[in-house]
Design goal:
Phosphoribosyltransferase; transferase; Rossmann fold; 3-stranded antiparallel β-sheet; alpha/beta
Length: 267
């Protein structure tokens, strides 16, 4: 009996981790394992307590006859800081400094180890946003956004800077970039459902024009932005095109030309 329960617990946890934020019926789980809903409820309580102790999430259970359970991302603050501090230290290598006071970070965002952690952090930060879909722009924001969407159990819509025939019909939006030039974003009409609640994710914010452009795209679809998450924000310019955003890291240029990367405080 003990071995049977251990196997059942492992299989339930595996299902939660492979499908975060995806609700599973307690009745169906009870039927699948050939036990009562009371037994399943006890199992889930044990799993929830263990995941909370690990600091990576909580299992939410909806009551009632059709009740279900799902893994909600909820990262403990010390783990959040440890992960971000590791990346900040990695990016402070002065060999990463690029012209224009930029920092090379593509290898971090395209490394699944780091991108998954960053997505977990952003999903935890915006777990209460009640978003329907995650939006980003090509190219470097995509891995960050896809892992955020994965942990929230949401689809992803990508704004393009040129329209592709394979994307089907698209809506184009013009917006003003940082240096004053007018740029264009495209969003496929099938990619973003009208009236959606949109969580916007971007890799880097200097003046905020790209995020502002994505907000304009959302407006064209009658969608409502419910949050903006950014991997790294530059301290300059101090005034951004958007007011409300949450950044994970902050980049500052020091007097000697070196770049300082620090972890933003979680609010």
């Amino acid at each position: 009996m003990k071995a049977e329960r251990i196997e059942r617990l492992i299989r339930i946890v595996t299902g939660f981790l492979l499908n975060p934020s995806d609700s599973v019926s307690l009745t169906n789980m009870a039927r699948q394992f050939g036990v009562s809903k009371t037994v399943i409820s006890d199992d889930i309580s044990m799993i929830d307590a263990s995941l909370e102790k690990e600091g990576i999430g909580r299992v939410n259970v909806s009551k009632g006859r059709g009740g279900g359970a799902f893994l909600k991302p909820s990262l403990r603050q010390d783990i959040r800081y440890e992960w971000l501090e590791e990346i900040a230290n990695l990016l402070e290598d002065q060999g990463r400094l690029l012209p224009g006071s930029l920092v090379y970070y593509s290898d971090v965002l395209f490394n699944p180890k780091y991108a998954s952690r960053l997505g977990h952090i952003l999903a935890s930060d915006f777990s209460e946003s009640e978003a329907d879909i995650v939006m980003t722009s090509e190219v470097k924001g995509i891995p960050l956004a896809i892992f955020t969407a994965f942990h929230l159990g949401l689809p992803l819509a990508v704004c393009r800077f040129r329209n592709r025939a394979s994307d089907g019909p698209a809506v184009s939006v013009h917006y003003q970039a940082a240096r004053g030039e007018i740029r264009t974003m495209f969003m496929g009409t099938r990619n973003l459902p009208r009236g959606s609640r949109v969580l916007i994710i971007d890799d880097f914010m200097r003046g905020g024009s790209t995020v502002s452009g994505m907000m304009a795209v959302a407006k064209e679809f009658g969608a409502t932005p419910v949050g903006v998450g950014v991997f790294m924000v530059s301290s300059e310019p101090a005034e951004k095109a958007v007011d409300n955003y949450k950044a994970l890291l902050r980049m500052e240029k020091e007097s000697d030309g070196a770049v300082k990367i620090s972890v933003e405080k979680s609010i």
